[in-house]
Design a protein that fits this description.
The chain contains 4 helices and 13 strands. With 249 residues, it is an alpha+beta fold. The chain folds into 2 domains: 92 residues, Ribosomal Protein L25, Chain P; 84 residues, Ribosomal protein L25, C-terminal domain (RNA Polymerase Alpha Subunit, Chain A, domain 2), CATH 2.170.120.20. The strands form 3 sheets. The protein has a 6-stranded mixed beta barrel with strand order 1-3-2-6-5-4. A 4-stranded mixed beta sheet has the order 10-7-9-12, with no helix packed on it. It has a 3-stranded antiparallel beta sheet with strand order 8-13-11, with no helix packed on it.
Amino acid sequence: MNNLKANKRESKSTGQNNKLRADGLIPAILYGGKVTNEKISIEKKQIKNFLESDSFLSTVIELDIDGKKEKVIPREVFYHVTSDEPLHIDFMRVVSGSKIIIEIPVEFKNHEKSPGLKRGGVLNIVRRKIELKCPADKIPEKIIIDLEGTDIGTSIKISSVKLENDVSPTITDRDFVIATVAAPTIVKEPEKPAEEGAEAEGAEGEAAATEAGADAPQAKEGEQVKKDEKSKDAGTEKKGSDKKTPEKK
C-alpha cells in the first residue's frame, strides 16, 4: 500500500491556500464516513509521481495525518488551467464494508504472444478504463487483459475478465467489448505520376486546339479584307477600261 504524509491546515481563504502552494504544498480535503471533513495539505514533491500514474484515482493510500493513519482513496484532482499544476485534491475515507463505484484502468500484457499481432494485426482498444462496483477496502489497482493466443478477429469482452465475487461492472445489460485484434489496414496506392502527366498533356492539347480554333476566324476575316480590297481594285480597273478614248480626227 502507498503511504503519504499529510498535515492539518487552518487555511480557508484563497489567499491562504495560494500561500500554501507557494510553499510547495497542495491543499486537500478528507471526507467520508461518520467523521467530519478534515482540511489537510500534502507536499507536492512527495505526491508528484502518484499524480502522473494512470491508476492514481483508483489506488488506496494510507495517509499519515500528524501521526494518525487513515486509508483513503483520491476522488478528484483540480489543476491550473494553463500551468497544469495541481491546485487541490479530494480524498475519501475507505470505510470497511461500504461499496464504491470507481473507474479501474485496463492493462494489456503478452503482446508478443499474440499470433494476430505477430501477423500484422492491430490491437483496437475500445475501453481504457472500466467502471466497477466494489468494496471500498478491496479495490483492484488495474484490470489485466492477457493477449496470449489471440488471433485476428478476436473480440475481448468483459465476460472473459476474471473479477472477484464481490466486484462487478456497472454495465450489466450487455457483454461489452474491451478490445479487438483487427486485421491490418490496407492503404490505397496513389495514382501513378505518369498517368497524371498524360492527363495534363491531354488537357494542354485541348487548350491549344481551342486557342487555334479561336484564332481561325480572325485569319479568315483578314483574308476576306484582302479579297474585298482586290475586288474594289478590280472594279476600279474595269470602270477605267469602259471609258472610250476619242478618235483623233
